[in-house]
Amino acid sequence: AQKITQTQPGMFVQEKEAVTLDCTYDTSDQSYGLFWYKQPSSGEMIFLIYQGSYDEQNATEGRYSLNFQKARKSANLVISASQLGDSAMYFCAMRMNSGYSTLTFGKGTMLLVSP
Amino acid sequence: GAGVSQSPSNKVTEKGKDVELRCDPISGHTALYWYRQSLGQGLEFLIYFQGNSAPDKSGLPSDRFSAERTGGSVSTLTIQRTQQEDSAVYLCASSAVGTGASIFYGYTFGSGTRLTVV
Fold it and tell me: Does B42 touch chain A (CB under 8 A)?
């Protein structure tokens, strides 16, 4: 069974600074995908970025990048130039590339961006 | 529809009553998922539908919980004899496909149903 660990319950960052949200995972599968979602206070889950286990380059989507270190089984999210609107819960998730697979989520990290 | 629609958005019910939560996925999405999110917690998987069948319902916490999907579209999650510990936000998501070959297909989530059992 797969497991996602997010060790930071909360993070604080000042506007315009970069922040890294940690995520480690545990799986015996070789083929899988890693996802990050944002959940603002309104409650909706917003897909941010995806990294495939065989992708050689780190994924980037605008201000979001995923620092993927396969040997360490880590998939940290880096947000550059933080904005006030980035304040939200952030969830790391994983899905196997085998059979009928579902997303397994970590417990999340609450990010607060201050002016 | 344009997005995943869930109803009701809020439900307050008395302990012991039955409730039904509805999810209308994106048109054409064959895979549908139910998750539960308790206050301040991550998302707990409940059940997964591919078409009208449920290959994985391992996350249903007890036999008070059941779900069905009809016509490969709308799904209903039913909780019988609700308990206070059932209070949570119930999130539904859909994706274009669910099998492993299409791993990139991330989920589109609905806004959830906030269930409060009093």
Answer: yes
